[in-house]
Amino acid sequence: LLDGLLSLGGINIHLAEKLQALAPFGAGNYEPRFAIMDVKLLRADIVGEKHLRLLFASDMAGTLSAIAFRAMDNEMGPALVNLKKGSRVHVAGYMRLNTYAMRSDVQLVVEDVSILI
Length: 117
Description:
Strand content: over 45%
Low-confidence stretches: none
Helix content: 10-25%
Oligomer: single chain
Order of helices and strands: EHEEEHEE
Number of strands: 6
Number of helices: 2
Structural class: mainly beta
Mean pLDDT: 93
């Protein structure tokens, strides 16, 4: 279930903060999920044994860092790792604020990917 469609340029700290204000998430208050269409996969690195650290880009906006938890346990992980860098994909997931060393940025938690042919 998706709640909306976003461009890569539409994902920013202000939006992520507004979405986090809707927390706590759980039964009856599901975390908003979005699709981001036609982005380029720049990086897909295995983190730990099962997760992927991803980097997406678009022609019109900058980049977006992402994480796909337990991706290597299903078809998505190996498909992304073996995908030629620069390949275009649609991606779906939810946003999280990632704060580290007093710096915040938005990270997408990837739940699904569709590879464009």
